[in-house]
Amino acid sequence: MQWEVVIGLETHTQLQTKSKQFSGASTTYGAAPNTQACEVSIALPGVLPVLNKEAVECAIKFGLAIDAEMAPRSVFSRKNYFYPDLPKGYQISQFELPVVGKGKITIQVPATKNAEAYEKVINITRAHLEEDAGKSVHDAVEGMSGIDLNRAGTPLLEIVTEPDMRSAAEAVAYAKKLHELVQWIGICDGNMQEGSFRCDVNVSVRPKGSEKLGTRREIKNLNSFKFMQQAIEYETQWQIETLEDGGTIQQATVLFNPDTGETRAMRSKEEANDYRYFPDPDLLPLEVTEADKTRVKAEMPELPQALQARLISEYQLSAYDASTLTASRSLADYFVAVVNAGAEPKQAANWVMGTLSAKLNAEEKNILEAPISPKLLASLLKRLSEGVLSSSGAKHVFERIWNESSESAQIISVNEFGGLDKELRIIDEIILKDDLKQVSDTGAIEAIINEVLAANQAMVDEYKAGKEKAFNALVGQCMKASKGKANPAQVNELLKAKLG
Questions:
Q1: Which stretches within 252-369 are classed as H helix?
Q2: Beta strands, E only, 2-149
Q3: How confident is the model at residue 139 (pLDDT cuts 50, 70, 90)?
Q4: From the centroid of its chain, how far is CA 412?
Q5: Which residue of 213, 437, 499, 500 lies most exposed, with the fewest beta carbons within 10 A?
């Protein structure tokens, strides 16, 4: 029998607010245990929750970004369950009336050996505001467990999809796209290691062609795209083998063990009615007006798809370049800053996607840690475009600046740099000190060519006999004779003229 996997995701996105969802306690990560747990966090009798306005604005931003339906009136509910790190005995969440309703996100699924790349629309069912629970800490004291309530009450936006994904690759592509989007619009820092972006993945299988959904198992708290891929692939295979062996799938919550690459059942999976949802009597309904949405929209950055379209139309970049440059907001901002500083768009795109990104990846840095600023890179590309630097010379200057990790490193005051911007002074100082200025003088290049031709008559004869490779060899000899400083385009042009 052929099987089809059906996948839906629930993503807990920690919102970038300074205070908690229903109190003024700090959300700063890494504080000593229980130092950020106020009266509301620990549920002292008589305390009342007060909704965080900034968290609501984050939810509105997300709704606008995915073109979602947004409820003019939404309600907070109590989700009842008992766990040591949930001091109230319930979590304040939204159930029947969430703030963000149906929306959509378009993903790009990368090519594989067996399939080409493709686009797919993933439907968002809802996104609702809620508070996080605390954290159980085991063996901090040998043989004992403790409770850290610093996270209790931290604002979350839980984003729930329809069961639209049919492979681990689609699920990972969606998670990455969502991860990029929530950072782009500034509602989440996206730090998966700190738990700011956690995914629960619902996986079921069914016979191919069947419309009936299989029994799902929920893989909890995946905080790595790599682990998500591994967990889904293992869980899918486990469910198929269980069914083909005559077994049945029991609805359950499961955990993924990255050391073994396996999932294991943690507990039976609850249904919504098990949580005994009811409206929270301490919180008024949340009303979002058209004026609220208009105000928040005016504060939002240009969205990735809109920026991609602008890079294609205004800068004449390819769809691939535009997509790559908008992989993150910081990368896109860097590229736009390089162009705004005077660089030609296609050349800037090539350097940002190529030399700069390769260096960042090699050193495991993000674009915000790059020691070469957009204006400095634009100045380097200016000298390259002017022919002052060769391509290899430009890369040499780039490496010098990168390794010195300071834009002002070793600048000297000489008259010939007097009227230049600081960034151009840095570039020109390195060109001068390292003797990198490209030779573009026609007479000087002709003299080099004449010497090379005189010393390599055999290559000349081969070229005239029709062997094109001999021409490239002669170009190489000319570049070697000039110590790499001759303008390659001029060498090619003048050499062809000499050879006739």
A1: 290-299, 304-315, 319-325, 329-340, 345-351, 357-362
A2: 3-14, 73-74, 77-80, 90-93, 103-109, 118-131, 135-138, 145-148
A3: confident
A4: 39
A5: 500
pLDDT band with cut points at 50, 70 and 90 for residue 412:
very low
Report residue 32 as tokens: 């000593």
Q: What is the DSSP letter of 435?
A: T
Give the pTM: 0.83
Which of 43, 26, 54, 143 is CA-nearest to residue 85?
A: 43
Evaluated on CA atoms 266, 268, 272, 278, the torsion sign reads negative
Name the residue among 135, 126, 181 with its Cα closest to residue 158. 126
Contacts 24+ apart (CB under 8 A), 401-409: 401/371, 401/372, 401/376, 401/426, 401/430, 402/359, 402/371, 402/372, 404/371, 405/371, 406/371, 407/371, 407/372, 407/373, 407/376
Q: Which two tokens stand for residue 86?
A: 């949930």
> Which run of H or of E encompasses 462?
helix 457-464
> d(Cα 173, Cα 108) in Å, to the nearest integer?
7
Residue 130 near residue 21 (C-beta atoms within 8 A): yes
Contacts of residue 63, Cβ cutoff 8 Å, sequence gap at least 6: 69, 70, 99, 100, 101, 103, 127
Say how far apart CA 110 and CA 125 lie, in whole Å.
24
Output the pLDDT for position 413.
Answer: 38
Q: In terms of DSSP bridges, do strands 155-161 and 118-131 run parallel, antiparallel, or are they unpaired?
A: antiparallel
* 3-state percent breakdown (helix, strand, coil) of the chain, nearest 5: 40, 20, 40
Better-scored residue on pLDDT, 270 or 98: 98
Class of domain 442-499: mainly alpha
Distance CA 358, CA 352 (A): 9
- Where are the domains positioned within the chain? 3-290, 371-438, 442-499
For the four alpha carbons of 278, 19, 298 and 341, in that order, the dihedral sign comes to negative
pLDDT of the residue at 124: 98
DSSP 191-217: -TTTTSEEEEEEEEEEETT--S----E
Provide the sign of the torsion angle of the four alpha carbons 237, 239, 241, 243, taken in this order: negative
Tokens (6 digits) for 68: 């979602």
- Dihedral angle sign, alpha carbons of residues 313, 314, 317, 322: negative
3-class DSSP state of 324: helix
Burial of 291-300, coded b for 16+ CB within 10 Å and e otherwise, reads ebbeebeeee
- Name residues whose C-beta falls within 8 Å of residue 276's C-beta, 6 or more positions apart in sequence: 80
Looking at residue 441, its pLDDT comes to 67
Residue 406 has pLDDT above 60, yes or no: no
Is-contact 77 94, C-beta < 8 A? yes
